[in-house]
Amino acid sequence: SQTIHQWPATLVQPVGSPLSLECTVEGTSNPNLYWYRQAAGRGLQLLFYSVGIGQISSEVPQNLSASRPQDRQFILSSKKLLLSDSGFYLCAWSVPSPNIQYFGAGTRLSVL
Amino acid sequence: AQSVAQPEDQVNVAEGNPLTVKCTYSVSGNPYLFWYVQYPNRGLQFLLKYITGDNLVKGSYGFEAEFNKSQTSFHLKKPSALVSDSALYFCAVRPGSSNTGKLIFGQGTTLQVKP
User: Fold this and answer.
1) Tell me: the pLDDT tens digits for B45-97?
2) Best residue in B2, B34, B35, B38 for a mutation probing chain A (most A CBs within 10 Å)
3) Of B10, B62, B56, nearest in space to B33 by CA
4) Sign, CA torsion A58/A60/A61/A64
């Protein structure tokens, strides 16, 4: 069966420090991968998505970047964190059939 | 512009009563429609989806949703609410023209079920 791992679960970082959040998927090949941010426990904002290795699409201009070095690995990064980067970050994957996005457990990032 | 609306920030219902969480959408083509549930500090869990066929779809934990094309709605329902159903619910839609699997999410509705 397929599983998605996302870590760390919580992270507290000072302003100006770098960031690296990792997401890996097991049990499937060539998934579409997604990074979302959720602010204040409400709506989801799609940050990046990827349909293949090295293929990254950015949805909103921001202080973050994403990379997909391997088929089932998706990394969210920043060189210098801002206070506004705080939030709950969710990774998800899908395949064309059955075309359902499955989510990881999320990372709570606090930038202080 | 393509969008999903969940008009209620919060829905309150007594345990044992039926519940409805509303969702309307505006997208091009024939949409794929989804409901997800999120418990505090957790990821989203898939509940159910509609792609084609019977307008009433059944999902996990006794939930169901009715697709209404004329009203462009996809309301989530359950005949008898449980306290454990209290959570944040998201409606999402994939435009029919999309080939990336990208979803458009509503802003979420908090369901509060009181004993």
Assistant:
1) 999 999 888 899 999 999 999 999 999 999 999 999 999 999 999 999 988 76
2) B38
3) B56
4) negative
Min Cα–Cα distance to chain A from B51, Å = 10
Interface test with B, best of A4, A25, A38 (most B CBs within 10 A): A38
Q: How far apart are CA A79 and CA A77, in angstroms?
A: 7
- Size of chain A, expressed as the number of residues it contains: 112
Query: What distance, in Å, lies between the first and last C-alpha atoms of chain A?
Result: 38
Give per-residue pLDDT as tens, B2-59: 899 999 999 999 999 999 999 999 988 888 999 999 998 889 999 999 988 889 999 9
Q: Which residues pair with B25 in a beta bridge?
A: B4
